[in-house]
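My current task is to audit a protein record that another person submitted. My question to you is simply how this chain folds and whether the C-alpha cells agree. This is what I was given:
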Amino acid sequence: MQYCDLTYLLVFLPIVMFLYQVFPKKVKPFILLIASYIFFYLLSGKLLVYLIITTFSMHHFGLWLRDNKRCEEEELFVTEKENKKEVRAKYLKKRKQILFFGIIIQLGFLVSLKYLSFFCLNVNNVFDLFKIPLHIKQYKFAAPIGISFYTMQAISYLVDVYRGKIETDKNIFKLALYMAFFPQVMEGPIARYNETADSLYAGNKITYHNMCFGIQRILYGLLKKIVIADRLNIIVKAIFSGYATMDGGLLLAGAVLYTIQLYMDFSGVMDVVIGSGEIFGVKLPENFRQPFFAKNISDFWARWHITLGTWFKDYIFYPISLSKFSKKTTKALKPKLGSHFGPLVAGSVALFAVWLSNGIWHGAGYNYIFFGMYHFFFILLGNIFAPLFGLFYDKTHISRENVFIRLFNIIKTVIIVIFGEMFFRAPGLKAGLIIFKKIFTEFSLVSFTNKTIFSLGLDKYDFIIIGVTLVIIFVISILKEKNVEIRESLAKKPIVLRWAVYYALIFYILIFGAYGTGYVPVDPMYASFQVNDYGQIL
C-alpha cells in the first residue's frame, strides 16, 4: 500500500477518518497510533520492531537527560557559589555522554541495516587490490521503509531535549505517534517534535474546512504523481537502463525528464502526505517551495527537501561551524585572509560534512556520495566568488532582481541540478560518468528527428499530456512564488465554481493518469532510497 494507491485513498484513509471521528477525544490519538502501526506493518512487516525499539530507546534517553538536569538543579541548590561551575561542568559532561550513546543507538540500526554490507564489500575490494588474504563476511539485512526519516526525527528529539529547546515528554504513546504517524512515516517530511507532537495528540475533530483543504492538496499531489511522474517512469527507465546504446541527445533528454519525474513524484507524494495530515488538523512542515525558481544552487537546496536541509543545518553544520576548533581556526585566519575568506575555511569544513552526509543518507552507493560532493563543489564555488559577484553588481549598478539576471541565474541553476540528478539516477558512478561523457562527445538530435524517442514507451499524445500538465503546474507555481494564496482564494469563490474546479481536477486525473494497460504502478521514489542499495567500487 502506497500513498497514491486506491487502497490508501479509498479504503485505508477513509476508514481511519471514520474511526477517528466517531471515537471520543481521548481515544483519537490511539486510533492514529494503531492505524500508523498497521500502515507500517503493511509496508515492512516484522521490521516494525525496529521502529518500536527506536521509540523506546529515545523515550528512555529523553527521561535520562531530564533526570540528569533535575539532579543538577538539586545539587546546585545546596552548593556554594564558588563550586557551582564545577557542578555544572560535571553534569554537562554526563548529559553529553547520555546524548552520545542515545545517538549511537539510533544511528547503529540505520548504519547496520543500510550501510554495513556496502562497507564490507569495499573493504574486501581493498583487501583484494593489495593481495591481502582476508575476507569480511557480508551480511545483508532488510531495512524497514522510512528508517532514514524516522531515525533523523529520533535524533532531533534527543538533541533538542539536550539543548533545552523542548521538555522531555514522559508520555511514550505521544512519542510513538510522533515517530510513526502514517502519512509521513514512509517519505517524511522530517518533522521536529515541537512542530507536530501536540497537534497529533490533541485529538481534535475533523472539520469541514480541514477535510476540504486536505483533499484539495491530495488531488494536486495525485496530478503531479500519477499524470506526470508515473508516465515518465517508462521512458526514463528505458533511457538509463539502455544508456550504452543511446546517443548524447537522448541521454540529455533522459536527464531532463528524470529531474522532472523526481520532482513531480516527491513533491506530489508530499502533497498527498501533507493533505492527509491536514485532514486530521496536523500541519506537517512544507518540503518544497518552488525549487526551480531558485537563483543559485544554495537557494535551490533551501527550497528542495527543505526539512532534510534544515536538519543537516541544525544538527551538523551549526555544531561544527560553532565548535571551539572552528572558532579558533576562524580567529587565526581572519587577520590573514580577511572577513570573508577567514570564516569561509571553517564553514567549508562544516559544509563538506553536510554534503557528505547528504550523499550517504540517500543510499549506499558511490553515485550518491558523488552527488553530495557535486553539490558541495558548486555551493563552495558560489561562496568563494560571492564577493566578486557583489563587486560586479556594485560597479555596473545592475540590480540582482533584473529580469534577465534572474532568468540567467535560474537557467544556470537548473542546468547544474539536471546534471546532478543525472548522476543520482545513473546505475552506479561509472555509468554516470559514461553518460556525462556521451552527452558532450556523442550529442545528436537524430533520435528526435527519426522519432526514436517515441519508441521508448511514450507516444506523442503522452508528451502532449505531460506538456499541458506541466504548464498548469508552472502557472500555479508562479502564483505561489508571488505569494498568491490559491486555495484560500478558491475557498471564497461561489460553491458552483469551487466544485467545478474540484471535479475538473478529479476527471483530469482519471482520464489522463498513467495507469491501466502499459503502465506499471510506481512506488514513491524517495522511499526506495531508504532500503539497501549496494554500490560497486570503480
In short: Residues 531-538 have pLDDT under 50 and may be disordered. The radius of gyration is 25 Å. Residues 6-205 form one domain.
